[in-house]
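Q: Structure tokens for this one, please.
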Amino acid sequence: NRFRNVEALVHYARAIGAARAGDVAAARRSAGEIAAIRGAMPVARDYDWSGSIGAQWEAATALIALAEGKKDEGIRLLRMAADHEDAVDKHPVTPGALLPVREMLADVLLEDGAAPEALKEYEAVLKTAPRRFNATAGAGRAADKAGDKAKARAYARQLREIADKAETSRPELEWARVYLGGK
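A: Here is the predicted structure, written as tokens:
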């Protein structure tokens, strides 16, 4: 079952990339592979692998809806997938989510101009995954766009602390540097 879970993760990553790039056909193929893997998984006594794979399929389906221009449906489905992912217990020998669905939801909300909502979602991610780079960067940008400059500065400082030893720059770090006045 763990091998099938890894296989599902590969298709999940492909579905995310394809949907975000607008390649709906490729995203649908990957979502179909996720569904097939989930359907073929036997019930295990130690862990419900199909639950975590189900949340991946739901997120892929939501991103496909967004790629098709169905914004309200896509956001609604992403919320449901995020809630589902939050409700599924993490297997003790697996790492945390590679890309939490709630973080993707926050990204979509921020892109859509809903900064206060995006900030709430980023902060929910940070409660379960403190100092997560992408969620911290997103929270900073969302706070800034929502008009909460003090919170934006705090997230910019935290982002700089997280990447204190970084050897290369990233756009998020450049944003933090500029936001903090070059400090």
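A few notes: The chain is about 75% helix and 0% strand. Residues 2-21 form the longest helix (20 residues).
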